[in-house]
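lol ok so funny story. i was supposed to be doing the assay writeup but got distracted and ended up predicting the structure for this chain instead. priorities right. anyway since i did it might as well share w the group, maybe its usefull for someone
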Amino acid sequence: MTPDQVALSAVIVAFAAVVQTVTGFGFALMAVPLLSLVIPTETAVVLSASLGLLSSSGQAYTERRHGDRPTIKRMLLGAAVGAPFGLLLLIVTTERQLRIVLVVVIAVFLLINVRNINLRRPSRVVDLVAGAVSGALNTVLSTNGPPLVMALHVRHLTPQVFRGTLTAVLAGSGVITVALFALSGRYERDIVVLFLVSLPGLAAGFALGVRHRHRVSAARFRQLVIALLAATGVVALVGLLVA
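and the output, tada:
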């Protein structure tokens, strides 16, 4: 691991933390594609999941009064079922295959949201399925946001309820994922070094996002979510083409 790789990784983490704090998700969506241009994808996945747990937990605490508890419980139940399957995929797939999965996940989510589907009422089946897919994606790509965001975004929730519900699920799912990574021996020396070096940037990004997120209106919030996914899809596609 070179000093340049460490420095660039820390900057990417800080940027991803700002995005996470403003939108309630997006840490891994931004971090994994960008980090994978600097460090191996598998290393980026484990690092992003570990730092994302801290970021999501901090935001879940600050937004704890706004979360929809029944939805949170259903999604976490699904995540607990899906996470082990994602770990299996991480073990058996190649780096290029991981990049392809990432691009496909982002593209599917964008397609659904561009169609502007609107589900005003919560669905138990949708919550459970979204949670299960999210849990699998979290261990294979550290990118568990898309299915959760899809299930919540189409309900046209307020930004506060959206962030409160989503970050609680991301934090709970993150605990499961990090535990599986630890049990499977994924925390090698390079990952530990990158994790420690990135902590100041994570804290700075979180503080900056909290300070400015109130300036984002509900309408702009929805536009930001879609624009964020489009940008990360482009980054992921570039990473796939140059790999």
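The two ends are 18 Å apart (CA to CA). Residues 124 and 185 are 35 Å apart (CA to CA).
back to the writeup now i swear
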